Amino acid sequence: LMTYTLTPENEFEVTYHAKTDKKTIVNLSHHSFFNLKGEGNGPITDHVLTINADHITPTDAELIPTGELMAVEGTPFDFREPKAIGRDIGAEDDQLAIGKGYDHNFCLNDGDGPAATAYDPESGRMLEVFTDLCGVQLYTGNFLDGTIMGKGGNPLVQHAGFCLETQYYPNTPNMPEFPQCTFDAGQKFYSCTVFRFSVK
Fold first, then answer.
1. Catalytic site positions
2. Closest CA to 148 of 138, 166, 139, 161
3. Which alpha helices (DSSP H) does the chain contain, by range?
4. What gap in Å lies between CA 186 and CA 60, rounded to an integer?
């Protein structure tokens, strides 16, 4: 069961509830695209992004995590300090080449603050993401090619939006060293992610 709630604090809250009748994997997420500029107003590459993560899970050629943890320091994946999404998206990097941009799981650090923050300097709109999960997938719309229409009939082209998908790490069941998401029969799963919007 997924519940969507709009709060008086300008939050979009997504809660997940599941109960298993057999041992199974539970890794639920939410694939909303965001563009803080507003409808049809250009790419998200100048959005300033911060992600509270020291590592990512690098992937193979099929975008499946290999089981390694890769430190973000000194790489295009370092969003620990605010940085424009587009600053390093075209860098010569094997991981960026695989996904034609960012399409990677960030291993969130412990802490009470936001897992990620995105800000559009042009509009002043800001998005903060709070979660109780251990990972967030940054996807920058790399494979959008204009064949799908968005709001107002605007074509969704490359980098027209970005996703911050909270989750357990992908490929977790095959990687025992990752935080696990296998639940026994009768075990309950609950998680909450909050997308908080504001203007600065």
1. 31, 165
2. 161
3. 94-99
4. 34
CA distances from 144 to 39, 67, 139, 150, 194 (A): 16, 28, 11, 11, 25
The answer for residues whose C-beta is within 8 angstroms of residue 127's C-beta and 6 or more apart is: 34, 36, 117, 118, 119, 164, 195, 196, 197
Q: Which residue shows structure tokens 């970005």?
A: 162
pTM for the predicted model, two decimal places = 0.95
Q: Are 115 and 131 in contact (CB under 8 A)?
A: yes
Beta strands in 114-154 (DSSP E): 116-119, 125-131, 135-139
pLDDT digits (tens, 9 = 90+) for 39-68: 767 899 999 999 999 999 999 999 999 999
Residue in 161, 163, 166 with CA at minimum distance from that of residue 194: 166
Report the C-alpha gap between 174 and 67 in whole angstroms.
8
Instruction: Pull the structure tokens for residue 95.
Output: 């991981």
pLDDT of residue 42: 87
Tokens 């990677």, located at residue: 104
Q: Residues 98-150: pLDDT tens digits?
A: 999 999 999 999 988 999 999 999 999 999 999 999 999 999 999 999 998 88
Using only the alpha carbons of the chain, give its radius of gyration. Answer: 17
CB-count burial class (<10 Å; 0-12, 13-18, 19+) for 158: middle
Residue 97: what are its φ and ψ, rounded to 5°? -65, -40
Closest CA to 102 of 136, 60, 67, 137: 137
